[in-house]
Amino acid sequence: MQETPDIGEVDTFAVTAEEAGERIDKALAVRYRGVQSRQYFQRLIADGLVRVNGHVVKKKDQVSPGDEVEVQFVLTPEIALEPEPIPLDILYEDAYLIAVHKPPGMVVHPAPGNWRGTFVNALLYHCRDLEGDTSQLRPGIVHRLDKETSGVLVAAKTSLVHQKLVALFSGRQVHKEYLAICIGNPGKGEVEAPIGRHPVQRKMMAVVEQGGRPARTLYDTLVTKGELGLVKLTLVTGRTHQARVHMRYKGYPILGDPLYGREGLNSRYGLHRQMLHAAVLHFVHPITGVPLTLTASPPQDMQAIIEQITG
């Protein structure tokens, strides 16, 4: 669950040698070619939403190798947050909230490179009276699943419920169980190791002792066969890529993971996504006070490997 400002998505990267010497607006337009225009990035720069090494810049400023650029993407007239008639696999719904089984491949909310076809676009179509600021990129969203992670996803229909659900998640009052197919047999135990941005690979997270945010994952191997294990993961905290980072840190990466896994095994099994599934979400309904346990079965590609392990 990546924690970014509600107004939009934040992306960071280090300037390459090829980008060095370019104006910042041109460098951004080239790096995000096909995402937005140079004029869009000039608007972000003018609004102070682009920083280089922590400092606000002007569009004519040039970048140097190794500069750290932070871009905050926001809705502008160039980007319209539109309802889209995307089917949803609804697990639970009432007047206050909705829970769906998110399939692998669906992005939760609009972000660079994925401005359409997201869960938010589907949510706006399904819930025509959704409360919240639709000038933001995440109306109704209280937590996230990575694009290629499947499973239970909850959204709020009203501003009050949004506030209360966010408080439940941040207060660790939501029980989150995942199923993962790991390489090897991690056994049973826990990982308590802080997570932060990878110091070199800016698209990745890592265990970072200095400056990382506290993170805790419980793991319990349910069954193993050969080189694979079916593992239940309980996420006590909710950091970006937490399950994936922690299992790699323990030496038992998740099968299929293109960032943190093992390329050879991923290729052998023909997998291009992590075998990670949000199976159970349990919390007390913030309005009715009734305990809710929401469950979802793993998708077909993951289920096929589970059957190989358990068969």
The share of residues in helices is: 10-25%
Low-pLDDT segments, ≥5 res: 1-7
CATH architecture of the largest domain: 2-Layer Sandwich
Multimer state = single chain
Radius of gyration: 20 Å
CATH superfamily of the largest domain: Pseudouridine synthase
Q: With helices defined by DSSP (H or I, 4 residues minimum), what is the helix count?
A: 7
Structural summary, described in words:
With 311 residues, the protein is of the alpha+beta class. It has 3 domains: 9-73, RNA-binding S4 domain (Structural Genomics Hypothetical 15.5 Kd Protein In mrcA-pckA Intergenic Region, Chain A), CATH 3.10.290.10; 80-171, 2-Layer Sandwich (Pseudouridine synthase); 174-311, 2-Layer Sandwich (Pseudouridine synthase), CATH 3.30.2350.10. 20% of the residues lie in helices and 28% in strands. The chain is built from 7 helices and 15 strands. Strands 5, 6, 7, 8, 9, 12, 13, 14 and 15 form a 9-stranded mixed beta sheet that branches. Strand 14 and strand 15 (291-295) form a beta hairpin. Helix 1 packs across helix 2. The two termini are 33 Å apart. The model is unreliable at 1-7 (pLDDT under 50).
